[in-house]
Amino acid sequence: MPAIVKTKPAYGAELVEVDVPKPGPGEVLIKVLATSICGTDLHIYEWNEWAQSRIKPPQIMGHEVAGEVIEVGPGVDTIQVGDYISAETHIVCGKCYACRHNRYHVCQNTKIFGVDMDGVFAEYAIVPAQNAWKNPKDMPPEYASLQEPLGNAVDTVLAGPIAGRSTLITGAGPLGLLGIAVAKASGAYPVIVSEPSEFRRNLAKKVGADYVINPFEEDPVKAVMDITDGAGVEVFLEFSGAPKALEQGLAATTPGGRVSLLGLFPRDVTIDFNNLIIFKALEVHGITGRHLWETWYTVSSLIQSGKLNLDPIITHKYRGFDKFEEAFELMRAGKTGKVVFFPHK
Ligand code: NAD
Ligand code: ZN
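That is the input. Now the predicted structure with zinc ion docked in place:
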């Protein structure tokens, strides 16, 4: 079968013919119906510093997935052949201090498939049964595949009350766009989005942003104050990883407001903690991964409610992997929302 493999410790990846794997104990084999590209896959493709320190080629890439179970390994009793599943990508230990406090999302022994082992950019793939999530049969595979990153967005947006609250989202990359969809579905108003890329500001509008701001052309703090009659936003959701966006977002948040941070900063960030956080009595959340498994229930229900506007976010669909390099290059150039492959042509 064809698979996108990180063959060498260098830029890029290759489409390679590999054997269909056999599920071992506790594993299931799925026919991959849809698989989407995550920013992490792009980092592996680009072979950035993080990828160099973590990835051991050769390895099949990819981790966001929806597929049908076609074989189960020894000892699997929770999943059956024919089940339609997606997968939580964090394989947690269940034994550490965090896990024993039901904080599986911060398990200190987390392994990630597609990062620490073979992934799902293939026609068939192995998923640990403990990580399988059963989907309703009528959920389109491209939505089912998006549930994993949607979990990040849901944990960010719903870390506190959001209905009827003015909300600033900084960064409308794939994750910020999912965040806009979740915020709108959850009743946030107005949703103000700060994003320098015109392409992504347009996507943000299509997903439902009430206002979009180009932070490179106008001051987002002033824009937010104008929109909110000088109050500032109740909720600030950081999805860009840009230090400037963090500072602007904190300044634009109303005293006593809520801040949830998902974006990862490329370096240490210096901000005026006293005036931007402490004296404003802001509630600040760091967000990582997704809560297992509460967030999956929320994500699945949100999709089934029909209220999540996902279609404008899925900007590129590919049958087969033949054009995978084009897909990665478009993503690198910031010319995409989410990119989805349907491996079987
Ligand atoms: P992305 O790089 O595609 O999107 C970031 C967006 O921010 C881009 O569209 C960019 O134009 C925009 N941006 C840049 N400077 C800005 C500024 N000053 N103000 C506003 N927007 C600005 O990334 P993504 O895949 O959408 O992921 C978003 C962030 O979330 C990344 O930092 C990623 O590393 C992080 N992330 C965190 C977790 C976690 O568990 N905490 C999980 C996945 C991703
Ligand atoms: Zn653990």
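The mean pLDDT is 98.
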